[in-house]
Design brief:
This is ATP synthase CF0 B subunit. Its main location: membrane. It is found in: Membrane. The protein is mainly alpha-helical. The chain has a domain of 102 residues. Helix content is 90%, strand content 0%. It is built from 3 helices and no strands. The radius of gyration is 71 Å and the shape is rod-shaped.
Length: 184
């Protein structure tokens, strides 16, 4: 067991120098010693905390990198899909444009053909109307000529015919009828 005498002995063991207890004013020496002590304490005591912080930071960074890679792959897939849709849309737009142009050409051709057919029918109708009007005009002129000729003939007969000539004409026709009946 130790008692107070042991302390005295141990104090006697350490020889005291002539200077005694004094402050070391050499800044470089004391700062290096203090810095060494502080660093040793920090490394010893803070090793677990620092390793945990670094491990957490490493996991966070790795998770962020994985998430970024996943998002990149997803975005690249969506970009490829969008490019494919864009290509299909371009092809479809070209098809629609070509169908539209051919449809316009077909409609234009049909419209021209229809207009030509309508024009031909109108021309035929016009010609038929002209022929009909010509025939009607000719018929009217014939009727007027016949009526005028008949009126002139009646006037001429009225002027030339008298009762005696009328009787002679009737007798002549009667004799002709008798001659026809007698020859049979």
């Amino acid at each position: 067991m130790r008692d107070a005498t042991d302390f005295v002995i141990s104090a006697a063991y350490w020889p005291l120098t002539a200077k005694g207890f004094a402050l070391n004013t050499n800044l470089l020496e004391t700062n290096l010693i203090n810095l060494g002590v502080v660093l040793a304490l920090l490394v010893y005591l803070g090793r677990g905390v620092l390793s945990n912080l670094l491990n957490n930071r490493e996991r966070t960074i790795l998770n962020a990198i994985r998430d970024a890679e996943d998002r990149y792959k997803e975005a690249a897939g969506r970009l490829d899909q969008a490019r494919a849709r864009s290509l299909r849309a371009g092809v479809r737009a070209d098809e629609i444009r070509m169908n539209g142009l051919s449809g316009v050409q077909r409609e234009k051709r049909d419209l021209v053909n229809s207009a030509d057919g309508d024009l031909a029918r109108l021309e035929d109708s016009k010609n038929a109307t002209i022929r009909f009007e010509e025939q009607r005009a000719i018929e009217q002129v014939r009727q007027q000529v016949a009526r005028l000729a008949l009126e002139r003939a009646v006037k001429a007969l009225d002027i030339r015919l008298n009762n005696e000539l009328h009787s002679d004409t009737i007798e002549h026709h009667i004799e002709l009828l008798k001659g026809m009946v007698g020859n049979n």
